[in-house]
Amino acid sequence: MVRFLKRYTGTILILIVLASLLVWWYNNRSFDHNVMAEVPRHDDLDESSLLDGENTSALLEESYYKYYYGFVHEGAEDVKDVHITIPSLNYSAISETGTTVEHNLDGQFGDVIALRDEKSWVEYEVDIPQDGFYRIGMDYYALEGKRSGLVRSIQINGEYPFYQAKQVEFQRMWQEYGEPWYDNQGNEYNPKRQEVFGWQYRDFIDSEAKVAQGFRFYFSKGTHTIRIDAIREPGAIGQLHVYAPQVIPTYEEVSAQYKQNNYKVTSGHYLTFQAELATLRSDPTLKRIEDREPDTVPFNSEAIVLNSFGGLSWREGGQWAEWEIEVPESGLYNIGVRFGQWFLNGFPVQRKVYINGELPFVEMNSVPFPYKQEWQVSNFSQSHEDDYLFYLNEGKNTIRMEVQVGDLGEVLELVTDTSQKMSELTREVIRVTGTNPDPNADWKLDRNIPNIVERLESMAWKIQDAVTMLTLFGVDEGSSEISTLYEARGVIVDMSKDTRSIPARLNQFRELQSSLGLWVNGLSKQSLLMDYIIVKSPDQEWPRPAAPIFVRIGTSINDLLLTFRKNYGGVGTVYDADEEVLDVWIARGRDWVDIIKQMIDEDFTPETGIKVNVNVIPANQSQVLMLANTSGLAPDVALGVDGEVPIDFAVRNALIDLSSFEDYEEVAERFRPGALIPYRYDGGNFALPENQNFYMLFYRKDIMAELGYGEEDMPETWEDVMEIIPILQQNGMDFFYPHAINDTKMAINEFAPFLFQHGGEFYTENGSRSALDSPEAIEAMRMWTGLFTNYKIEKQADFYNRFRSGEMPIGVADYSTYILLSTAAPELTGWWGMKPMPGIRQEDGRVNRSTGGLAQTGMIFKDTEHPEESWEFLKWWTSADAQERFGSELEALLGVEARWNTANVEALQRLPWQAEDIDAILEQWEWFREREVVLGGYYTTRYIANMWNEIVLNGRIVRESVEDGVKEINKELSKKREEFGLDVDERGGTTE
Fold first, then answer.
1. Which of 646, 703, 801, 942 has the fewest beta carbons under 10 Å from its own?
2. Mind telling me which CDD domains this protein's record contains (predicted)?
3. How far from chain centre, in Å, is Cα 881?
4. Cis amide leading into 298 (omega within 30)
């Protein structure tokens, strides 16, 4: 080997250099603007001429930008000097149910209409005096609900003018009450946040803030109907306003007005207002957070101090926070903030800035905060030669800052539109070539698909236009964040030059489309961290943005030394070892555990007198608990434990049998019976479920309707699914069923629904033998793998993005998909639905939809000296009240993306799910059934994955693959039972 290297070292180095140059050339050719030099534009072509008239997204409404610019191109303009006010009770029609008349809500508007239930609505007729663009807004009062913002939709003359009008959010108001609390280690924690009820005004604006200003609605002269539908949360309408768009003055115009009004420029004043002391905020997720930069005020080198505001929680369009500031005299001041923006690499984030409820001048509609890996100071006027001056009244004033994506909105629109067109083209190609085309065949796509070259060239130019707009926005062309656009542009141009290569590159085309979707989602998140607000006279200097490097190094060294003196595993108040105290270990993130500890200190300990120490352990690392148990250092209670773990401890006699407590059966009724199966062993019950996953059927109403399937026609059984799949594939689409190729642990969960629905079991003879060779199990395996072999559905796919694009308009997915579609796909509002997953029809006509969703549990160790107290704690934690509060607090802290999927049925119904969605979930839960956990069961997990690989990827016969797998599983089951001294007749797991 050494001789070989000596002889060929030079050759190897040359090859490495050539390979590097090749990679460099390939990557940089897409970055070369000359790549577009020979690509013609098609701006003069009507966009519809580029399509073949079979757009599967035809039922979806157009975007706001297309709606607005369509009317602009026809000559539409803003109207002037019009303001129509419609009192709440002056409606023309109203829904029969779900509405009430509220009396004297704060006494401002008298009697008003309230939309209380989902799908309740009210209509108003308005006489429009002249053609043109109008703004629409309303006074609203958020009534007590489930803590989420109000969501309303608006229709004009019975139609949604654009898709953003289907989901407009009207935020609630929140404030802190009480003071921050401190544990006995001096660490600070956020005070509680409570809702403030009162009237607010808000225009109908983009809920994602991707449109810089409020919506402009086009009305022709005459009578029109405006309908407002309740999508989420109850609220009252005070007055509806239809008015001429306001012209916001520029800073130059405002500055001239200052001089006319003889406003005085103040001097000698320098004031700071801590950002963490916001007086109002749009939702309770906006909170104080800790920053360890030494110049951040206040700073505590020895403990956690919540000294800044926002961060990752302050990123969603429309979120706002408001501060009350007090100045000693009326006059002109500079205003700025000390901020951190290291979240969006290479891109500035934006905020709207209101002073005393108004935009002072148009530049405050989109204030940029540039990217940098350290703290900065913004004077709100980076593009202005001099600092802006703001007029403030003596005494109290308010500053409100609201998340704004606006300037990026049109860029994101271009990329989203291109992604959708890529999806449409993909489906058209598949109609010609089929789902598995011969890559060497010449399919003559330029003849079979109208204008395919022109369409590809148009897509490439849209990507190029997006890049150009980003550079004008101040983004460096070499930024890594733009590389996705360069890559997409290069591939599209290559395809336009050689359409014969398209079938072979279709997977690459799809992956790029998914990447573009992720890119858009990422840029939509506009996080910003703030330390304090600066209000100063122009003769005062701005503060330094960050501490010198030697000060920061000193702080880092101090933090390192602190780790040797301080217990970072403990959370909240830590009681001394000589006290009588429960020791609880929780395998979750720090933010989650902070909430649990706060609930313990505020609710559980005062009610029961039981003191609790809480420690954080790494998630998904059960070996930490096993080592602790082996060494005699196990806690009393463990939470967040993976569902398969309790039996590993139960067989070692390390857990308390919870059914030994008198009220166990009463507590067990909180959960679906099938949720308790994995925690049974040898007649005992050794854990309680905390949360659980669930699978549902998701479908696109618009696309399925175009294929001839109404909501009532959605598949009930797998036979129905198999009838739909060929129709989908004939139209270039596909059905989705989850399969994680690189995660063998998931295979057993993917197979379990088919097994249970066929009446099969994983094990027989008390868990001593595999039952996968039974006729029911083999038929289940045949059906499961047949989806991929006979029906050729995708083996792996990004369902969320393909669902949005329309490539996979129907499929089975877990609740995380529900959260994504609810929060990050506003264009699909009203166009997707969720039903229980398909199943097998039984002799009595019912459809067996059995499926599970193994998640996390709580358990009590046998070595505890406080078994009764531990049981009291576990009962409290899994109760409906505690689970509801935890879910609400968690969602308030981290947003709806962290919605707690509690296993407590009552608590699930209390959390802010939409009514029709929770009904579908509860219907699915009627069939909730978890799989058994037995000694050696990891071999079942491994071999089910192997069976799928052999059958689907290698074409092996189902029975042969299953029987060979069962032999190996049985060997391991016997081996593990022998290891633990169990006979065949003894229970070796959760089977009955």
1. 942
2. PBP2_TMBP_like
3. 25
4. yes
